[in-house]
Amino acid sequence: MAKRTFSSFEIFLIFLLVMMTGITVALLSLLFITSGTIENHTAPQNSTPSRTTLFQNFSGYHIGVGRADCTGQVSDINLMGFSKTGQYARGILTRLYSRAFILAEPDGSDRVVFVSIDIGMVSQRLRLEVLSRLQNKYGSLYRRDNVILSGTHTHSGPAGYFQYTTFVIASEGFSNRTFEYMVAGIVKSIEIAHTNMKPGKIFINKGTVDGAQINRSPTSYLWNPQSERARYSSNTDKEMVLLKMVDLNGEELGLISWFAIHPVSMRNTNHLVNSDNVGYASYLFEQEKNKGYLPGEGPYVAAFASSNLGDVSPNVLGPHCTNTGESFGKESACSASMCVAMGPGQDMFESTQIIGRKIYDKAKELYESASQEVTGPLASAHQWVNMTDVTVWLNSTHTAKTCKPALGYSFAAGTIDGFGTLNFTQGMTEGDSFWDSLRDQVLGKPSEEIKECHKPKPVLLHTGELLKPHPWHPDIVDVQIVTLGFLAITAIPGEFTTMSGRRLRQAVREEFEAYGMLNMTVVISGLCNVYTHYITTYEEYQAQRYEAASTIYGPHTLSAYIQLFRVLAKAIATDTVANLSSGPEPPFFEQLIVVRLGKGYWDPYETHQTFLTVEKYEATSATWQIIHNDASWETRFYWHKGLLGLSNATIQWHIPDTAQPGSYRIKYFGHSRKQDLLKPAVLLSFESSPSVFEVITTW
């Protein structure tokens, strides 16, 4: 065969082709490695965003994380959770944050949003307003089916952001100021996550957390069948499920952890806004990963979300009689007002740290060893359901019904984590003529229908029949599941007890398996989208302790939820989500009863990036460096209402043993009101600082 020769021009063309190919490969590789975002997807109002993507040739998800402050008021507003009269906010221990995570498929076609918020629970009004604002900015990208809002259930966050009358009364009114702070913080955290999206990977791990929880209603748990209880080693769920998120270069982005525990290490005697034990776990993890940043700052986001915590307490020493100090197994050993569960620390601050660190330590262990990658398509399913009228199939021939909402007598008793102040006790299966008569005169008599439906619960408040000034409890409730490959997140609109959560997880897993989705990991995400109090098992309901008396839709509530979540799981597994009905849309009430704020007390009402700083003098640069703010665990800001429109602020710095010797100062940032004659009042910002002081040594 004759040897082929090339002309100079042909050699030039071949060389040019090789060079162009190399440049193209290099540019594509550079794009793959360094690209920080996928398409912005920002759409005009009410428009559908484009689905164009930059690339699809990677295994994983597009991941965005974001954190934003949602603290709001820190004075003269009720703290939400214990419903204790007089438990007003009077300062701040730690700030409250909304932590958002957006996960999208490589081609950008499907995505889900999970937001964990340092608040008592997500109210329906809060969710509806957040979804409305997201629609205004992003069109149909973020919707009711693919956005989950979950409260951590701290009992030390502001109240006042509800629309149903029961919660408005507990909050002593609706606070538009608090509501706006929360909505703005949640939306901002989602916006940050949206902007920061980048290709990455998600890893999952599970492990047991020991020594952090007890069951606060163990006698109720024993009402569950012995054969069922025998399948579990504990009367609480000790398993933590953790997601680790990294980008394609291995840079750490964030984590979500689900673990069942009540954030009530801070007691009902506390008056400082804070995120409690799970918030302390977030604080520790974010401080470790965001080296050199102040608390609440830095790119890494760590969320410790709620789960089936209904009957789970962090006060691990159990109930003690406060007048004798003796521990006991049954609250009948002393009056309810003397029965309090004790945490492991010398005070509630130390108990919060001890429990929070146990949660953090296990999360760190699971995070560092996480190796199982989450892969597979994303999906989401959602329905609004009228929970007052669900027909429950008990078997193939017998049905039951859910009830209009009602609260039982033991609701007023409280729990060992926070007892009630009147002569109510847990386990009441009969009413009281005095309280019945008083209720009938003030609110009217409950119908025979609602009393019969809720048996054996003796109805104290027939909230489902009370409609003024607005309904006292929600009828329309969200049920929602999102899936990431083999992980299913069930968004629960309340507080499931331990066994209720176990039954729901099993039912959802079995439904997925029945339609070909095998080996699913099902997570219970608590306090999501709308608050409906507690959900016990049918058997626990018979005992009528606090959790059962607070199961507002009656004895078959859990069975109804299991039935509804099975429908969602089947729709996802069979790819028939589009055929689901959306259900009856919930209301958004206007003209709510407004919180009456103390007039003339201005400084704590105005939002600040921080109310305080602790600063250290650096001689080499002759500058003051901020080392702590009011989000730091080591600082406490107390606000005290004075006379004639004056107030007092006290700032404490509990000096840690890591503090370096040197010169320090503390600064306070506030507002004052200036009132000139015949002129409207104006707010003036100010800052003040006492004398410089020396830290010589710590121990």
Automatic annotation (TrEMBL):
Native species: Capra hircus (Goat)
Positions annotated to bind Zn(2+): 153, 262, 495, 534
Keyword terms of this UniProt record: Hydrolase, Lipid metabolism, Membrane, Metal-binding, Sphingolipid metabolism, Transmembrane, Transmembrane helix, Zinc
Cofactor binding comment, as recorded: Binds 1 zinc ion per subunit.
Reactions accelerated catalytically: an N-acylsphing-4-enine + H2O = sphing-4-enine + a fatty acid
Domain named Neutral/alkaline non-lysosomal ceramidase N-terminal: residues: 61-563
EC numbers for this chain: 3.5.1.23
Name assigned to this protein: Neutral ceramidase
Family: Belongs to the neutral ceramidase family.
Reported cofactor(s): Zn(2+)
Any single GO BP term: ceramide biosynthetic process
Keyword Membrane: yes
Superkingdom per UniProt: Eukaryota
Top class in the EC scheme: hydrolase
Gene Ontology, cellular component aspect: cytoplasm; extracellular region; plasma membrane
Active-site residue numbers: 313 (nucleophile)
InterPro entries (UniProt xref): Ceramidase_alk, NCDase_C_sf, NEUT/ALK_ceramidase_C, NEUT/ALK_ceramidase_N
Bilayer-crossing regions: 12-33
Domain Neutral/alkaline non-lysosomal ceramidase C-terminal as annotated: residue spans: 606-695
Molecular function GO terms recorded: metal ion binding; N-acylsphingosine amidohydrolase activity
